[in-house]
Amino acid sequence: MKMREGMLKALLIAVLAAEIGLINIPVSIAATTEETLYKFKGGAKDGANPGGVVMLADGSLLGTTGSGGGGCTAGCGVLFQLVPPSQGASSWTEKVLYHFSQSENINPTGLTLSKSGSLYGVTVEGAGLGSVFKVERPKSVNSGWTVTTIFRFGDNAGGLGSYPRGAVVEDTSGNLYGTAGGGYTCGYYPPGQNPFPIPIQCGIVYKLSPPSGNNSTWTETDLYSFKGNSNDGDLPGDLIIGRSGELYGVTQAGGRGCPYIANSNLFRGCGTVFRLSPPSAGRSKWTETILHFFAGGPSDGANPIAALILDSNGNLFGSASDGYTTQNTPQGGGGVFELSPPASGKQTWLETTLWKFEQIVNGQIDSRGGYPYEQLTLGEGRILYGTTLLAGGNTSSGVVFALNPPAKGKTSWTETVLHAFTNTDGAGPQGPGMIFDKKTGNLFGAAPGGGIGTAGGFGGNGVVFEISP
Question: What predicted TM-score, i.e. pTM, was given to this entire model?
Answer without folding.
Answer: 0.89
